[in-house]
Amino acid sequence: MNRDDFMILKNNLIYFDNGATTLKPKCVIDKMVDYYTNYTSNIHRGDYSNAIITNKEYDQVRTLVKNFIHAEKEEEIVYTSGATESLNMIAFGFFKEILGKDDEILISKAEHASNVLPWLVLEKEGHGKVKYIDLDENHELVVENVKKAITSKTKVISIAHISNVIGDIRDIEAIGKICAESNIYFVVDASQSVSHIEVNVLKSNVSFLAFSAHKMLGPTGVGILYGKEELLNQMKPLKYGGGMNQSFEIDGNYILKEIPIKFEAGTPPIAEVIGLGEAIRYIEKIGVSKIHEHEYELKKYLISKLEKIPNIILYNKNSKSGIISFNIKDVFPQDTSIYLNTYNIAIRAGNHCAKILKDELNIKNTCRISLHLYNTKEEIDVLIDALEKSEDIFKVVI
Amino acid sequence: MDKEIRREIILDNYQNPINRGLVDDDSYILKNTNNESCIDNIDMMMKIENDIVKNIVFDGEACAICTSATSVLIKTLIGKNIKEVENIIRNYQNMINEKPYDKDLLGQLNVYDEIYMQPNRKTCALLPSNAVINIIKEYNEK
To answer: Does ipTM come in above 0.85?
Structure first.
């Protein structure tokens, strides 16, 4: 749907790599070009007309994000450079201060590097122990296994809302409830879910949430850190500089600004923040549930077709998002993606930054198709046709 | 080189690479080489005695180009002395990187002389040669 909004699709591109980054609708690009063309200025410091426009455009994105993820206050929305920075801020700005050596951090083996490495580093530095929630036989994370993994020492659970290889939608509402009952902090990486399914931080009792704009039809270079007000007040900034301080003196005393500004040192990616706002408007106009319905419908269609091709190995046919991981038997995934590129089909081959998932799947690398609103059944038919002809793959790729 | 012959050599070395499987032998030098941008990941082990390459084995997960290049490189290098190995590697890397090289030194490695036309596969073809460089470096430091 809405294919005309995506200029890049006019080149017959079949884009199935939305888990890595999504395409951008014209309105998002135009919105940023408008800032650069007509009212470029810095934020929060100017008294001239353009600066006033910039302030307004920039600040109102916080309200858009707040409503988009159902947070309570604008102050709980921090602009970052992306989900990776958000997750690092959560680990090193908050949990480093409160985790003792024996406190347990619960994650899963299907998490993205940015939700594994910060915790491993914390552990190495003596702040907490990383434990893994077992995945079920479909490599999915289910509430039952979360319950089993919790001990009296569990201080934080940090998981993706939708995992980026298996594509299982985690029941964060149920997990959030368990966290609330057991006094456990709940961190959610929503990178693969915002713009695909509804994210509600209040309903899910989320302590902290992270996502990137570029995976939700927005620009690169900007993301969001959500934190409950009282937690952000406790959290330390990792960056210091202009914009985030109230005052500093020669005697070494300084006062920082309040949240969220105290986390936003330096000139932020202004055009990108404004672009993110436009992406949210665009998504809300269509409706997240409609997008999910469309993607899931396509996924079911794709799976039904893939199952008929004998040499295709499927890794996640049960998961409910628009992510499909597969391999062609005896073909290295990179060769598959190079082969599909000859049909102008963009997919991803690799471990998708989930490097410890290999212990679960018994295979390091897969091909991943990740869908979005602009994908169609016709595109899937082209893919299926290519895969059916893949017996001759080496004639094409060598 | 004829396209069909080129493809046959690459495919044969991909599907039936020489010396796949590592050995438990301290007299070999082991180096891993991988590249995140192309997900190939191989371990290479080389036994060098009196500056002569006695044997090379490898293992890992890699695409058709990387696996086959590893196999062809192993065949080319076994029996050569360190100086010859360094010379072959230099010329091989020059070929992949579109710099002047001596075709006559490279034997079957010449099947990769058009890889430069697929820039994202250059890394795949270069990967095993980087492992060789690191192994030689360690040998020379010993």
So the answer is: no
Q: Which of A231, A262, A285 is the last residue of a domain?
A: A285
Domain containing residue B115:
3-141
Residue B6: list chain A partners with CB under 8 A.
Answer: 398
pLDDT-derived band at A359 (thresholds 50, 70, 90) equals: confident
pLDDT tens-place string over residues B63-109? 999 999 999 999 999 999 999 999 999 999 999 999 999 999 999 99
Secondary structure class of A335 (helix, strand, coil)? helix
Say whether both A260 and A240 belong to one domain.
Answer: yes
CATH of the domain at B99: 3.90.1010.10
* Burial class for A301, CB neighbours closer than 10 Å (0-12, 13-18, 19+): middle
Q: Round the average pLDDT of chain A to a whole number and report it.
A: 95
CB of B122 less than 8 A from some CB of A: no
**C-beta of residue A390 within 8 angstroms of C-beta of residue A328:** yes
If asked whether residues A339 and A366 sit together in one domain, one would say yes
Looking at the fold, whether A15 and A31 belong to one and the same domain comes out as no
Any chain B CB within 8 A of the CB of A329? no
The shortest C-alpha distance from A398 to chain B (Å) reads 6
- Is residue A122 predicted with pLDDT exceeding 90? yes
C-alpha A309, offset from chain centre: 31
Look at residues B90, B93, B88 and name the one whose alpha carbon lies nearest to residue B105.
Answer: B88
pTM score, two decimals? 0.91
Q: Decide if B141 contacts B82 (C-beta within 8 A).
A: no
Judged by CB atoms closer than 8 Å, whether chains meet at A394 and B118 is answered as no
Q: What's the confidence (pLDDT) of residue B37? A: 62
Choose among A332, A365, A395: nearest Cβ to B7: A395
**Domain encompassing residue A249:** 27-285
The verdict on A264 and A337 lying in the same domain is no
Chain B positions in Cβ-Cβ contact with residue A338 (cut-off 8 Å): 63, 118, 120-121
- Cβ atoms of A260 and A77 within 8 Å: the answer is yes
Quote the number of domains for chain A.
2
Q: Is B36 exposed, middle or buried (0-12, 13-18, 19+ CB in 10 A)?
A: exposed
| Average pLDDT along chain B | 93
Are A273 and A307 in a shared domain? no
The CATH number linked to A177 is: 3.40.640.10
Q: Are residues A259 and A383 in the same domain?
A: no
Q: Is A336 at the interface with chain B, CB within 8 A? A: no
For residues A121 and A242, membership in a common domain is answered with yes
